[in-house]
Amino acid sequence: MRRFFIIYFILVAVRSFSQQPAPTTTLSVYNFPKMRSSVTMPVKIPLAEIANLINGSVKDLIFEDDSFTDNNNDQFKVKVWRTRPIRLVGGTKQNLLIEVPLKIHAEKGIGTLGFYTYQDTTFETVMYFNTQITFNTNWKMITKTVPMGFKWVTKPVLDYGAVRIPITPLVESSLKKQQAEFCTTIDEMMLQQLNFQPYAVSAWNTFSEPFNISEEYNTWLKVTPLKISLTPLVFYGDQIETSVGIETFSETFSGQKPASSSLVKTVPNFSYNGELPQKFLLQTTANIPYTEATSIAEKMFLGKEFLFREGKSRIKVTGIKVQQNNGKLEIAVSTEGTVEGTSYISGIPVYDGSKRMIVLSDTHFKLQTKNILQKTATLLFQRKIIHMIEDEYGLPTAELEDTARKSIEEAFNKEYYKGLKMRGKVFMLKPSQIILNDFGITAVIDTEAQLQLSVQGI
Questions:
Q1: 442: how many CB neighbours lie within 10 A of its CB?
Q2: Are residues 54 and 40 in the same domain?
Q3: At how many degrees (to 10) do helices 197-206 and 6-17 cross?
Q4: Nearby residues of 192 by Cβ (< 8 Å), 6 or more positions away
Q5: Spatial separation of the C-alpha atoms in residues 315 and 367, rounded to whole Å
Q6: What does the pLDDT look like over 215-254, one tens digit per residue?
Q7: pTM for this predicted structure
Q8: Residue 26 has pLDDT above 50, yes or no
Q9: Contact indicator for 147, 141 with CB cutoff of 8 Å
Q10: 99 inside domain
Q11: What is the distance between the alpha carbons of residues 115 and 215, in angstroms, rounded to a whole number?
Q12: Are both 272 and 235 inside the same structural domain?
């Protein structure tokens, strides 16, 4: 189907929302975790759209016999037109019932020895066909159309005044022959319009070249489709339904552009799956550099003073830095006053859903100082600063989550190509795993969503 880029736009949609750009990074090369995602998309194809394709391919004048002398000098001419658009209805066994309304103009000669009197008549009938459809796993449709007879709207009668001659048997023999030939025409049109292989190849090769998602920080995204599965076609009265499942790898690279994938001439055959989940889980990543994490900490604590030991001890934060140390997130806090030196609070970063923040858990304390006035003061300071960091410090993800949800839903609800409309909704979006690397913190974000693709006005 020339304009039936269903597979193409499904994969384009995956490309649109499989990965969020990194806010920043350093010039050092770091390869993010390779994310395996699975997307399920129900597809609804109104039969009216397929009927539009067929009607556009069939001329109004379907058949013409303009000779009186052919067919053993039958003295009969006939023209057959469509009176209305061809109509399709879904059957119960992966089949289509096709209705073709026709107008017929016939001329018949009555006589002998070369002398004939001619009369013409116009009447209407409706032809019926049954088309069985099989969607092969190599992306090709196989159709088998058989005639299902016809009914008369008005019967053909030649009126010679005193004599009225029914010509139904003569017309029926011609119509049966044309109906059988029209079955082949329907099958040929279906095969021509419903061959998905070239578009599946085009879509697959779209992702051969990695694309730059951040020129400033030299970050690249590579999406690799792995396999595609479909549920069996389901035929209803006015539409065909199936669900498409796509498994992909999403990879983010910083630094040097990754190697391109080889182009393919054919895509792997899809597999049938009896049932795919209506909701799917998609994983993306968002990145928070240590510089940004440090900036957040500075706004919260730099220059802050606090008292302890009933106001006898005073501490002021003079510097703060967020970094990685031995696989843990570490906050280095420089202070002056009762305790002068640098405190190192390290822990495991986790996502706190109630705060919508990345916070520290399982924290450990280490102090480097030359100014320990007394052991009691140091212990109280340790409790105070650990409590402050655990309760107050966190990397807010609310804006990140809301922005990601908005951008994904915008990608879900678009008409990527005329007649192909996608609708979707995000039900849940939250960080599920926090990974530390050389330049910052990578949050793996789980997204639960639902998609639907409909074909309209192609």
A1: 21
A2: no
A3: 20
A4: none
A5: 14
A6: 655 667 777 888 888 888 888 888 888 888 888 887 777 6
A7: 0.64
A8: no
A9: no
A10: yes
A11: 88
A12: yes
Q: Quick one: pLDDT at residue 213?
A: 63
Asked whether residue 408 is domain-assigned, the answer is no
Structure tokens at 318: 């003079």
The answer to whether residues 379 and 436 belong to one domain is: no
Please report where in the chains the tokens 């002998």 appear, as a residue. 112
Residues 6+ apart with CB under 8 A from 229: 244, 245, 270, 271, 272, 273, 276
Domain of residue 219 covers 6-45+196-282+414-455
Environment class of 374 (CB within 10 Å of its CB; exposed 0-12, middle 13-18, buried 19+): exposed
73 CB burial (10 A radius; 0-12, 13-18, 19+):
exposed
Q: What single-letter amino acid sits at 124?
A: E
The string of DSSP letters for 160-221 reads -SS-EEE-HHHHHHHHHHHHHHHHHHHHHHHHHHT--HHHHHHHHHHTSS-EEEETTTTEEE
In this structure, the answer to whether residues 371 and 431 fall within a common structural domain is no
Residues 189, 106 share a domain: yes
pLDDT tens profile 63-104: 788 888 787 777 778 888 888 898 999 888 889 999 999 898
Domain boundary (193, 223, 248) is at 193
